[in-house]
Predict the structure.
Amino acid sequence: MNNRLFIGIAGGSGSGKTTLAQKLADYFGDRLSLLRHDDYYKSQASLTLEERATLNFDHPDAFDTQLLIKHLDELRQGKDIFCPIYNYSIHDRDNECRVVKSTEVIVLEGILIFENPEILKRLDIKIFVDTDADVRIIRRIKRDVSERGRDLNSVISQYIATVKPMHEAFVEPSKRHADIIVPEGGMNRVALEMITQRIISHIERKEQD
């Protein structure tokens, strides 16, 4: 029950943490399950689209942390979970969920996963992706406009109003909890190889038990 490896990958918006997490998921296939903190945003179905667009999605209170902790515990116990799916275009959860398997390795990625002590206790390896602020904002603008249906002005306004101050208040201070700090995330080939080898070692030890 306790021989599953839980890896947390945190970092600011646009830092490259999602790229790093996805590369690990692609490499290990069905031996690794990926959880995204964004999928645990609280449901805001009672609000209009315009009202949801003004919410602060970069504060810890925006997340359904209790559900995430419950799911992490169930995965460690060997139980599969039904994970919510967040839809960025409507600023809310979709009606459907996805099944996340209780695999040998569980990766959780998100901006604020090191901010919460209860989440921290459930992570065996904590990786913080550290990228310059100017690179992060450029990546965020390109991503939100091209992939999430946002217009440029709304992305910039959101960055100034909530993303930047919340990064300074919560994300950056949480870096001190990291076991490993990785510059440039998924683009850091050396770091990716080291993390991959650590996971391979875990899987090999489990197979020998």
Summary: The helical segments are 17-28, 49-53, 65-76, 117-120, 133-147, 152-171, 189-208.
